[in-house]
Amino acid sequence: MSLAAVLRRLATAAVTLFGVAVVVFVLLRVAPGDPIAMMIGPGASEADIAALRARYGLDQGLVTQFFIWLQGLIAGDLGTSISLRSDVLGLLGQRLPATLELAGAALVVALLVGGTIAILGTLARRSPGEAVVDGANGLLLAVPDFIWALAFVLVFAVFIPVFPLTGRMDPTIDMDFATRFFLLESLVRAEFAVFGNIVSHMTMPVLALALPLAAIVARVLKGALIEAMGQDYVLLARLKGKSELRLVLQEALRNALPATLALTGVQFTFLVGGTVIIERIFAYPGIGNMAIDAVINRDLPLIQGIVLAFGAMFIAINLAVDLAVAALNPRLRHG
Questions:
Q1: Domain of 129: which CATH number?
Q2: Which tens digits make up the pLDDT trace of 244-303?
Q3: pLDDT in tens, 197-256
Q4: Residue 248 within any structural domain of the chain
Q5: How many domains does the chain have?
Q6: Measured by CB atoms within 10 angstroms of the end CB, which terminus of the chain is less buried, N or C?
Q7: How far apart are the first and last CA of the chain?
Q8: CA distances from 294 to 28, 123, 291, 297 (A)
Q9: Dihedral sign, CA of 109, 212, 323, 326?
């Protein structure tokens, strides 16, 4: 993908993000409910209510409110959370790394599990083992992430309590983190006890997010591998005496990756969106859990900031996937 193409995509992304901001802003303002009424005490006077409206800019017209908010957005100010009384940008900076680590770990697990299932299914094609692999993959595909989450809570936190149920790590851990990426930082700093504790807290939510995506990866990759196994270059390699496993890994896999990677990128955006309910189930302190509280409290500035953060993530993921697919496919890279 050329530099001009990347710049065009970035320009399109900016326009898309602006459109998302406009739609969310308007929908939140026309939706029923008064955020000020939800945060003010029952004995407040009309003057108190008017002062709060003025503080959060809700006493202005809709167009004026939007341009005030847009001016702040350009300056890097997303406003102040009505329910948490804190800077929205600061809140996103605190919570977003937790969600990124959760989604990133789930993606890695999904690729490993899905890739393994696809390779096993390809090696077992036209044999009884293929039906077993396809059946297991169908089970993973049929069960949504929140059902997996509830099942894991029941089995591994209630019946056999081997994993912590809530939180990101034990509150007794005393470590001075330089960043909010606790998992990555503890690994880089070789704090393996802390790293293991964080992993134990992430295990159930990561698996709940990863298993449905793994089933999609397995299905797409297996189809691409079987198609590649019928190509002439694979037949030539087979005539040279290569084993089926080497044919799959060395010959077919690299040609099956681009299509799988493209679909995985699209599904990964749904995985990031799925963190909302998963974080709520496990009381995981990420942006998804905060989004539910923001909606319940009708915290307009915080909802707008969270939606923009999700929109920016989706656009960045899609752009990264396009670049990766172009890098793996010479016809797209030089086209």
A1: 1.10.3720.10
A2: 888 888 888 888 887 787 777 777 878 888 889 999 999 999 998 999 988 888 888 888
A3: 999 999 999 999 999 999 999 998 988 888 888 888 888 888 887 888 888 888 888 888
A4: yes
A5: 1
A6: C
A7: 8
A8: 12, 49, 5, 5
A9: positive
